[in-house]
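Archive transcription. Copying these from loose printouts into the bound notebook so they stop getting lost. Printout 1 of 2:
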Amino acid sequence: MKRWLLLLLLAGCSSAGKDDESPASVEAEMTAPGLTARPDRFEAVLEAVGRPAWKERVTRIQFTWHHIGKGLKRSYEWDLLADQVTATAGEKTETFPSGGPGELHASFVNDSYWFLFELMAAEDGSLKRTLGPVQADGFRGKLPEMLTVDVRYPENEGYTGGDRYILYLDAQNLPRAWSFHKGGTWEPTLVTTREKHVRAHGVALPTEFRTADGAVFIRIENVRINGEALP
């Protein structure tokens, strides 16, 4: 699949952060005392979510992306062997290659990256580096302090170049929360949990995303892997 960047803004997020923050100041914060770089950590994340099984055993995946607040739903069937996606949004259904083009391709990128972020990020050229244990903004006391992996995308590529995403990992290297940083700012634009993983055919995929107040923001529904319906 071509390198396409995440489109969390399609979920209704607005920019909130240090938009005037310079790259130099961001890098200074990233390398502050107590933060360490371990480029191998993302490989451990991929093991936790089952990327080897994804590449070897998963041939077809179906799901519905549901924005709870907006009542918006879009459904997809992705044939990985044929590299074809059939997307349905409202009354419109369209089939296109996973790399596009297509009228619903941008929606597919956004929605599949919510569900399959680690697997998608493994295929692109984004910068991935490990930071020290930190607390997810807004979740103090609700989530343990966790090791984090910072995923940053190049500017001027894909739909939303320059954005960054931080994964908050548990002791088994499975992401339990993440933050979206529009334009690469250090202050997050949105932070949610990554919960209720479905596990089948060797992969572990999140199906519920909650904000700090406990409200469900995004839910992944009607999941099928290789034709098997999952709870």
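Printout 2 of 2:
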Amino acid sequence: MNDLNSVKEILTKQKEYFSKGYTLDVNHRISSLQLICSAINEHIDDISKALYEDCGKSEQESYMTETGMVLEEIEHTIKNLKKWVKHSKKHSPISQFPAKSYVLPSPRGSALIIAPWNYPFQLAVMPIIGAVAAGNTVVLKPSELAPATANVLEKIFSEVFEDEYISVIQGDAEISSALTSMNFDFIFFTGSENIGRKVYSAAAQNLTPVVLELGGKSPCIVAQDADIALAARRIVWGKFLNSGQTCVA
């Protein structure tokens, strides 16, 4: 567990690192994503073993629902990032003549990502990809309910990056509560509605923007002309994937 003083020091270092402008360079972002991709491939067996230990996932299911999706996301992001960061021109109102208007995608700064236990690797790294691509620094708080995966995540990112850029902070609910009360520039939380309310409330004290990805509903409609046997197989497959622990199962 990280003590609160060291956590505060990491956030201070990340804000200083961001202020120097390193992450504004799109090539810096791309090279960082490439490093993440290489590190995942290097530790693919460790990730698979951790997911089996935490969630009972087979090697095939681990790749299909976690590592494979992450690697595809990195590839897609690298391929499109230079297009995404370009200025886009916008119409200027006559009242602002002769001004020219455009949208410039800009990073927030220091981002806090709190990951859940049901997809402990995928739902930790996917937001990191987005945060890094957008030019932010990152603090990741993995779920303490998936400790083997949390250890692998810390190992991967500590080997590749300094704490001032990307840091993995482990701990229990006390650490999560302390993190959400700190002055991050953005918070991304995946988890339950109950904890989501607490995250939002804590972030509001600092006017920190928040994205909450909470539990969902999973209705299933089978039309009259459906192949019932086929529909049944597909429904059972979707519902039992990841032991049924999928918000859109």
